[in-house]
UniProtKB/TrEMBL annotation:
Identification of the protein by name: Nuclear transport factor 2 family protein
Superkingdom of this protein's organism: Bacteria
Domain annotation DUF4440: ranges: 6-112
Species, as recorded: Amycolatopsis halotolerans
């Protein structure tokens, strides 16, 4: 049951990100939420939401796929592929990222406590 709830939460999160729906996003994440972005920057909950509130970030499409969920008591780890078309301050920030979502169970169900995005690319030349 937990994995199905977490998968559904992930779908709601992706739809809300694509819509810039900060009310829904705010309800899906924990108060102490942190995002580690694909370039290593860290945003707290309000900074993350403010990107949409200010119009600085516009997500045109977001696909959260190939997700594997592992539940460990009141904590869960969801690892998947985050594929987006978006702009930040008018600049394209499209990309495909390996993403890790850390979720915690509270009285109202599951909340996303953290996300970490890592760009996916081709293997280095020495690995081919």
């Amino acid at each position: 049951m937990d994995t199905a709830e977490i998968a559904e939460l992930g779908k709601r999160w992706a739809v809300a990100e694509a819509a810039g729906d900060t009310d829904t996003l705010g309800g899906l994440v924990a108060d102490e939420f942190r995002l580690v972005g694909p370039l290593g920057f860290v945003l707290d909950r309000e900074q993350w939401l403010d990107r949409y509130r200010s119009g600085a970030l516009a997500t045109l499409r977001l696909d959260w796929r190939d997700v594997e969920v592992r539940v460990h008591g009141d904590t869960a780890i969801a690892i998947g592929v985050h594929d987006q078309e978006a702009t930040h301050q008018g600049n394209r920030v499209d990309g495909t990222f390996r993403a890790t979502h850390v979720l915690v169970r509270d009285g109202d169900g599951w909340r996303i406590a953290g996300m970490h995005l890592s760009p996916m690319g081709a293997p280095p030349a020495f690995a081919r």
